């Protein structure tokens, strides 16, 4: 029976059946991501949803870190979101990246500052950007590598967080190369040392415990 | 009766029945007026029972016969269907006496093997005047004296209406209540003491004299019956190929009118129809119809109406989302912790393995070193012992050597070979040779001695011989 034109009671109001589900998913995503600017983030969310792209949603709820106020506001979860959105291509367009950056309610100046570390024209290798972001998260090179491992790994959260040694050494060399203080020979010897350790035991995969825990123990 | 009865008796029988029946019917119909009928009691019934034919069957037969010509009002009088219900014969008497229908059965004193039915209430209220369905006695007690047990059969029938359903007039009180009889006049009820009462001998042993008497009486009755049967003239047996048939043997042929003409009729009721559904009850309308016109938008404000729905939608969504997020976070945390612990455990396990391996290697090294040291110490000790022994031996031998040599030399272990050769070889030979030489000389001397002796002897002989011959010559030779 078609709905009459005139409405007489509240029972006549029709709610599209998809609406509650979309609303719920959106609410959950918003709760989980905790964007600073909900409107901006929602625009990004729905545009990604309509285009069928990966949604700018964190996998896990992140407690607001103390450094978020003072620092870039970048967190591991946000980097992970960016990784999820951009990692399908090897190179990422800077404009696209900036759009995504803004959708995550991150200040554009920070992006600029980040990009100044390794200036490039229009495109950037995604893995390099990710490495830069990781280095921005934590102080030392080791903690940056740890964050990188946790983002790139396919292991479940809390697991050994293994990535291939090739990627690891590439990123390590890249990050270490940015730092002029580190002598090249030290980097190579460190990598060789790690490589021996790893190849003796694991099949070319480097885990968090291989380099991070050892450092912590010392 | 039947086929063997003579035609004459056969023809007589219905008439007799009819007469009897008519008398009976007349008697019944006159009962209200007959004073004795009112007070008819058991004894009278019994007396009537004594007629050769049982009253009950007679009455029943009469009723059947009377039907065509007697008035319907009279007919039911003899109808056995109007009998009051009688209790089944197996009911105990006392139980039966409590029944609304007062048919009782008494174990009559004096003849303990017979049970005689009796009726307390032979008369029912029939004050109503005209003849109407009434109680009829139908006693089938003809078997009672011989059988010893009472049997009763009655055809099933409807319960007769014993009371009138309404009073004739309001003014006239129902002055004649139902008589159920006074139990004190019941002959089956024993009054007074029971000491003098004849009872069954205990143990079921009847008196033999009494038993004999009964048997004799029975036999007598049987003999009488047989004699009667023999006395009665009988129809001779039909000849071969024929049989007896009932025929009318009266002077005038009559139509048998008492036969009921039967015609089969059928009557079929319609099939049952389903009951139609009960129509919905609609109460009659009351009040007045009034109408109010409502213009569009007067009653419904979308923004207003949608608010609660939106509130529910948003509130529920947020509530549920929060719940779900919390739940999922909790689960994810649990899982993450689990993985972290597993990872930690793996690392620790590896560390433990490494330490164990290290420990094992250390222990092995220690063992090896210990072994080595032991060997060294052992060799040291051995060497020292050897040196000490050597020194001791040297010193010991130093003293020993000269004496040994001396004693050995004394023992002749050290000798000159030439000297020994002369001693061992030459001297014995020399001695041998000397001996031989001396023996030779001895032998020569002995031989010489012997020669001399012989010569001497011979000379002696000769001397002597010569002396003898020259005894005179003198001994100065």
Automatic annotation (TrEMBL), chain A:
<dbReference type="GO" id="GO:0005737">
    <property type="term" value="C:cytoplasm"/>
</dbReference>
<protein>
    <recommendedName>
        <fullName>Ropporin-1-like protein</fullName>
    </recommendedName>
</protein>
<keyword id="KW-0969">Cilium</keyword>
<keyword id="KW-0282">Flagellum</keyword>
<dbReference type="GO" id="GO:0005654">
    <property type="term" value="C:nucleoplasm"/>
</dbReference>
<keyword id="KW-0966">Cell projection</keyword>
<dbReference type="InterPro" id="IPR047844">
    <property type="entry name" value="ROP_DD"/>
</dbReference>
<dbReference type="GO" id="GO:0042802">
    <property type="term" value="F:identical protein binding"/>
</dbReference>
<comment type="similarity">
    <text>Belongs to the ropporin family.</text>
</comment>
<dbReference type="GO" id="GO:0031514">
    <property type="term" value="C:motile cilium"/>
</dbReference>
UniProtKB/TrEMBL annotation, chain B:
<dbReference type="InterPro" id="IPR009290">
    <property type="entry name" value="Radial_spoke_3"/>
</dbReference>
<keyword id="KW-0175">Coiled coil</keyword>
<feature type="coiled-coil region">
    <location>
        <begin position="345"/>
        <end position="375"/>
    </location>
</feature>
<keyword id="KW-0597">Phosphoprotein</keyword>
<keyword id="KW-0282">Flagellum</keyword>
<protein>
    <submittedName>
        <fullName>Radial spoke head 3</fullName>
    </submittedName>
</protein>
<feature type="region of interest" description="Disordered">
    <location>
        <begin position="126"/>
        <end position="155"/>
    </location>
</feature>
<keyword id="KW-0206">Cytoskeleton</keyword>
<keyword id="KW-0966">Cell projection</keyword>
<keyword id="KW-0963">Cytoplasm</keyword>
<comment type="similarity">
    <text>Belongs to the flagellar radial spoke RSP3 family.</text>
</comment>
<feature type="compositionally biased region" description="Basic and acidic residues">
    <location>
        <begin position="226"/>
        <end position="241"/>
    </location>
</feature>
<feature type="compositionally biased region" description="Polar residues">
    <location>
        <begin position="137"/>
        <end position="154"/>
    </location>
</feature>
<feature type="region of interest" description="Disordered">
    <location>
        <begin position="220"/>
        <end position="241"/>
    </location>
</feature>
<dbReference type="Pfam" id="PF06098">
    <property type="entry name" value="Radial_spoke_3"/>
</dbReference>
<keyword id="KW-0969">Cilium</keyword>
<dbReference type="GO" id="GO:0005929">
    <property type="term" value="C:cilium"/>
</dbReference>
């Amino acid at each position: 029976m078609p709905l009459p034109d005139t409405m007489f009671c509240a029972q006549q109001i029709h709610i599209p059946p998809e609406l509650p589900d979309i609303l719920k998913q959106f609410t959950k995503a918003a709760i989980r991501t905790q964007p600073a600017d909900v409107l901006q983030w929602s625009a990004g969310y729905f545009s990604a949803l309509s285009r069928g792209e990966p949604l700018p949603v964190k996998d896990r709820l992140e407690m607001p870190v103390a450094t978020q106020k003072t620092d870039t506001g970048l967190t591991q979860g946000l980097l992970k979101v960016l990784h999820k959105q951009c990692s399908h291509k090897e190179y990422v367009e800077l404009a696209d990246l900036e759009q995504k950056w803004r959708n995550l309610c991150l200040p554009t100046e920070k992006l600029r500052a980040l990009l100044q570390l390794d200036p490039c024209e229009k495109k950037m290798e995604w893995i390099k950007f990710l490495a830069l972001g990781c280095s921005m998260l934590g102080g030392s090179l080791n903690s940056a590598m740890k964050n990188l491992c946790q983002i790139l790994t396919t292991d479940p959260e809390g697991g050994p967080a293994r990535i291939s040694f090739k990627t690891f050494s590439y990123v390590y060399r890249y990050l270490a190369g940015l730092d002029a203080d580190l002598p090249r020979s030290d980097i190579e010897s460190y990598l060789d040392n790690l490589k021996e350790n790893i190849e003796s035991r694991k099949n070319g995969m480097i885990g968090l415990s291989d380099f991070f825990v050892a450092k912590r123990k010392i | 009766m039947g086929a063997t009865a003579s035609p004459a008796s056969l023809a007589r029988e219905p008439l007799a029945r009819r007469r009897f029946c008519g008398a009976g019917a007349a008697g019944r119909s006159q009962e209200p007026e007959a004073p004795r009928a009112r007070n008819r009691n058991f004894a009278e019934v019994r007396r009537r029972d004594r007629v050769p034919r049982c009253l009950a069957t007679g009455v029943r037969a009469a009723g059947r016969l009377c039907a065509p010509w007697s008035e319907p009002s009279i007919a039911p009088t003899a109808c056995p269907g109007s009998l009051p219900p009688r209790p089944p014969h197996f009911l105990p008497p006392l139980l039966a006496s409590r029944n609304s229908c007062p048919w009782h059965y008494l174990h009559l004193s004096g003849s303990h093997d017979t049970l005689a039915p009796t009726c307390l209430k032979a008369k029912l209220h029939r004050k109503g005047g005209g003849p109407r369905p009434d109680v009829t006695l139908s006693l089938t007690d003809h078997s009672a004296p011989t059988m010893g047990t009472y049997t009763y059969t009655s055809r099933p029938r409807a319960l007769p209406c014993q009371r009138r359903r309404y009073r004739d007039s309001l003014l006239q009180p129902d002055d004649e209540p139902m008589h159920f009889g006074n139990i004190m006049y019941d002959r089956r009820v024993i009054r007074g003491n029971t000491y003098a009462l004849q009872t069954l001998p205990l143990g079921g042993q009847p008196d033999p004299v009494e038993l004999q008497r009964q048997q004799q009486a029975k036999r007598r009755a049987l003999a009488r019956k047989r004699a009667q049967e023999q006395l009665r003239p009988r129809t001779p047996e039909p000849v071969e190929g024929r049989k007896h048939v009932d025929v009318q043997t009266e002077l005038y042929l009559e139509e048998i009118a008492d036969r009921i003409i039967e015609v089969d009729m059928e009557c079929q009721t319609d099939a049952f129809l389903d009951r139609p559904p009960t129509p919905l009850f609609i109460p009659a309308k009351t009040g007045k119809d009034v109408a109010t016109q409502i213009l569009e938008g007067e009653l419904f404000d979308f923004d207003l109406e949608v608010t609660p729905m939106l509130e529910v939608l948003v509130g529920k969504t947020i509530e549920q989302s929060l719940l779900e997020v919390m739940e999922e976070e909790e689960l994810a945390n649990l899982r993450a912790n689990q993985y972290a612990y597993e990872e930690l455990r793996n690392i620790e396990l590896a560390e433990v393995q490494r330490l164990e391996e290290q420990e094992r290697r250390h222990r092995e090294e220690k063992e090896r070193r210990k072994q080595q040291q032991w060997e060294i110490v052992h060799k040291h000790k051995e060497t020292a012992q050897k040196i000490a022994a050597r020194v001791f031996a040297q010193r010991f031998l130093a003293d020993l050597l000269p004496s040994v040599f001396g004693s050995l030399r004394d023992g002749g272990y050290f000798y000159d070979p030439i000297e020994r050769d002369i001693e061992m070889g030459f001297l014995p030979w020399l001695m041998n040779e000397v001996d031989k030489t001396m023996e030779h000389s001895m032998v020569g001397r002995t031989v010489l001695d012997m020669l001399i002796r012989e010569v001497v002897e011979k000379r002696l002989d000769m001397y002597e011989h010569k002396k003898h011959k020259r005894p005179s010559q003198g001994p100065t030779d």
